[in-house]
Design goal:
Rna Polymerase Sigma Factor, Chain: A; 7-stranded parallel beta sheet; alpha/beta; 396 residues; 3 domains; globular; 16 helices; single chain; 4-stranded mixed beta sheet; binds magnesium ion; binds NADPH dihydro-nicotinamide-adenine-dinucleotide phosphate
Length: 396
């Protein structure tokens, strides 16, 4: 290989960003961090720049940029600091970039991810919210530019590994009956329903198997994460919502399965460590060392499965309904969820209210077609405004 692959890591200071940089550092002959972005954790961003010496660093505003630029100079680095969404789009679409890790959380990651797609970059997609919001438009842009789109979400990466290379011909054509999307059930899988009123953000963020950012941790507790993943799977694999079944598997060892018409069920297993799907996507179609310990099946000893309980996890029902409704529904679901989760993390609402708010917001707006990006942003803005109205109506 002549020159290492140039990788932009959007959301470098987050959980996925750090795992990505860990893998990159294991293979300096193959990969080089080209640009790193941070948002609030700027001391961490500086440390990452010192470690990985990227060409660019991206921060949210002028003040942060001045501080970071001075610190970089003092550390003897020539890394150039760029600003805001424009800076993110620039480093995502830069002509010298080969691959972009889309690991900003939430709708904030959408424009830079699309900027990378439009320039035909290899996309390592962690930012599921971007695909949930824009679905058909995102996939059209991928086809138009010839981008290679590789899923980072562990379940989707598992499904990708269990599907044949020509799955784009259609799931029916390659003999797939259904996709089995596994879910751990999160920290509240067995909590008595009456106690859910009183659970705290700390409890919601204490995931039994995975260490992740706060927003996705709450989504995992409510299973909205699985709902977003259901929508994500429909777009990535051209599946109908009824072809995707959610299976609770508390050990998080099987990361998802594909059920074929001949009765074969293929699964991908591994320790719950995001460096596996990250390495798989970075090196695809090759395999590289990820630093993840080998799976010890004797230590795992057993694998359990159960059906999800919709009373316990109403967000899963809401997400499935949005997947079936299509149009603006997934973007509205996602936006209402982002605002509601932030309110829960700020202790302005109780945990069960996350689902109540989303249901209320979705019931107030008719689903419309979204055939251009402006319509997606309009649906997103409408849902955010309706969620804020709910919060002020209820005195939060
Ligand atoms: P984190 O909260 O740990 O990291 C989020 C990253 O995005 C940080 O770098 C953060 O910067 C940055 N960021 C936050 N808000 C903004 C904004 N408004 N503009 C620009 N940058 C912003 O999240 P995770 O790494 O856990 O998750 C990232 C994405 O990956 C999510 O979409 C999540 O659903 C998905 N994912 C995560 C998995 C995991 O195991 N963690 C598994 C599967 C998917 P800073 O920290 O400096 O504020
Ligand atoms: Mg996942």
């Amino acid at each position: 290989m002549s020159r290492p692959e140039q990788v932009t890591v959007l959301g470098a200071t987050g959980s996925i960003g750090l795992s990505t940089l860990d893998v990159i550092a294991r293979h300096p002959e193959r990969y080089q961090a080209f640009a790193l972005s941070g948002f609030t954790r700027l001391a961490e961003l500086l440390a990452l720049c010192v470690r990985h010496r990227p060409r660019f660093a991206v921060v949210p505003d002028e003040l942060a940029a001045r501080g970071l630029q001075a610190d970089l100079r003092a550390a003897g680095l020539s890394t150039e600091v760029l600003l805001g969404e424009e800076g993110l789009c620039q480093v995502a679409s830069h002509p010298e970039v080969d691959a972009v890790m889309a690991a900003i959380v939430g709708a904030a990651g959408l424009r830079p991810t699309l900027a990378a797609v439009e320039k035909g970059k290899k996309i390592l997609l962690a930012n599921k919210e971007a695909l949930v919001m824009t679905g058909a438009l995102f996939m059209q842009a991928v086809r138009k530019s010839g981008s290679v789109l590789l899923p980072i979400d562990s379940e989707h990466n598992a499904i990708f590994q269990c599907l044949p290379g020509d799955f784009a011909r259609g799931l029916g054509a390659v003999g797939v009956r259904r996709i089995l999307l596994t879910a751990s059930g999160g920290p509240f899988r067995q909590t008595p329903l009456a106690e859910l009123e009183h659970v705290t953000p700390e409890q919601a963020c204490a995931h039994p198997n995975w260490s992740m950012g706060r927003k996705i941790s709450v989504d995992s507790a409510s299973m909205m994460n699985k709902g977003l993943e259901l929508i994500e799977a429909c777009w990535l694999f051209d599946a109908r919502p009824d072809q995707v079944e959610v299976v609770i598997h508390p050990q998080s060892v099987i990361h998802s399965l594909v059920d074929y018409v001949d009765g074969s069920v293929l699964a991908q297993l591994g320790n719950p460590d995001m460096r596996t799907p990250i390495s798989n996507a970075l090196a695809w179609p090759e395999r590289i060392d990820s630093g993840v310990a080998p799976l010890d099946l004797f230590a795992v000893a057993r694998l359990d499965f159960q059906a999800p309980d919709e009373q316990r996890f109403p967000c899963l029902r809401l997400a499935r309904a949005a997947a079936e409704a299509g149009g603006s529904a997934p973007a509205m679901l996602n936006a209402a969820n982002e605002v509601a989760v932030a309110a829960f993390l700020e202790r302005r609402i109780r945990y069960p209210e996350i689902a109540s708010i989303i249901e209320d917001v979705l019931s107030r707006e008719a689903v419309v077609a979204v055939d251009e990006l402006d319509a997606v942003f309009a649906a997103d803005a409408k849902a955010r405004a309706l969620t804020e109205q709910w919060l002020s109506r209820n005195g939060r």
